[in-house]
Automatic annotation (TrEMBL):
InterPro entries assigned: AB_hydrolase_3 (IPR013094), AB_hydrolase_fold (IPR029058), GDXG_lipolytic_enzyme (IPR050300), Lipase_GDXG_HIS_AS (IPR002168)
Similarity comment: Belongs to the 'GDXG' lipolytic enzyme family.
Keywords: Hydrolase
Coiled coil: none
Alpha/beta hydrolase fold-3 domain ranges (all copies): 73-269
Phylogenetic classification of the source organism: Bacteria, Pseudomonadati, Pseudomonadota, Alphaproteobacteria, Hyphomicrobiales
A GO MF label: triacylglycerol lipase activity
A matching Pfam family: Abhydrolase_3
Protein name: Alpha/beta hydrolase
Superkingdom of source: Bacteria
Length: 300
């Protein structure tokens, strides 16, 4: 049963964020400002430090005193491909760090100044160097979930190491927007109007084919991917991007689990200090990643 706080948080997003995004429709700069202004508390006791991996700037999130063999996580932040950064996503990277991960979040280039495939190129460059240092998991939310899945398809194509497992929070997987939830949840989604999402797609793709599997991972060959865990809200327009991907992945022989959470809005995990569903989601995601973690010794 959803908590009372889930209903309150859904109401806050519906009446404070969705109208702002509606007014900003078609204005990438205004939408970026809204995304970048999102403010949630950072987990206490976590050290955030700038770094560069594979020539790509980013940020480590770590809990002091971690053991050298602590699990490693490569986190790709969301933001509609046009906004946000490692700093805006410290509540999420920090939450994984609290739970014992050593987390790197690359600061990939953003559209429309740097359209497809710039963000994916940056993710691939950083992942190649990150994975060379040892086994790791991947996680991402929203647009970062899209990049996480596209990165795995590209890594498989290019012979790069695949992650031990991946966690996807409300990812976008189909740039053509053909999931039924785009229609059935158009009024129920607390944050997004499906028509407005096309502005972000256009800014990112800049005329590129939306059916390209590296833009719409749902359209790709999913065989050989590592275990996947999807968390998505029942009311989200992006709900079926997760459900359909998990179904197709299972048909391809991939272990894929999707949990559809009632009431909660898009990427509710940000509200972990307030929302019990956010803490549960992050804890379940962490347990999933740890259950599939491989130590360097295990792969020698």
């Amino acid at each position: 049963m959803p908590s009372l706080r889930a209903h309150v948080f859904d109401w806050i997003i519906r009446w404070q964020v969705k109208p702002k995004l509606a007014r900003a429709a078609g204005d990438v700069a205004a939408t970026r400002r809204i995304f970048n202004q999102a403010s949630f508390p950072e987990p206490p006791g976590i050290v955030f430090r700038p770094a560069e991996i594979g020539g790509i700037p980013g940020e480590w999130a770590e809990r002091p005193g971690l053991a050298p063999d602590a699990p490693r996580l490569f986190y790709l932040h969301g933001g509609g491909f046009i906004g946000c950064s490692p700093r805006t996503h410290r509540p999420l990277t920090g939450a994984f760090a609290v739970r014992g991960f050593r987390v790197f979040c690359p600061d990939y280039r953003l559209a429309p100044e740097h359209p497809f495939p710039a963000a994916l190129d940056d993710a691939a460059a950083a992942w190649s160097a990150f994975a060379a240092a040892g086994p790791a998991g991947i996680a991402g939310d929203s647009a970062g979930g899209n990049l996480s899945l596209a990165l795995m398809l590209r890594a498989r194509r290019d012979g790069l190491p695949l992650p031990s497992a991946a966690v996807l929070f409300s990812p976008s997987t189909d740039m053509l927007g053909e999931g039924d939830s785009m229609r059935t949840n158009a009024r129920r989604d607390a944050m997004f109007d499906p028509a407005k999402l096309q502005d972000l797609v256009g800014a990112y793709l800049a005329g590129h084919d939306p059916a390209d599997p590296l833009a719409s991972p749902l359209r790709g060959d999913l065989s050989g991917l590592p275990p996947l865990l999807f968390h998505v809200g029942a009311r989200e327009v992006l709900r079926d991007d997760s459900v359909r991907f998990a179904e197709k992945a299972r048909r391809a022989g991939v272990s894929a689990t999707v949990t559809v959470w009632p009431v909660v809005p898009h990427v509710w995990q940000f509200a972990q200090t307030f929302l019990p569903e956010a803490r549960r989601s992050l804890s379940e995601a962490s347990a999933f990643l740890k259950s599939h973690a491989r130590t360097p010794e295990a792969v020698r």
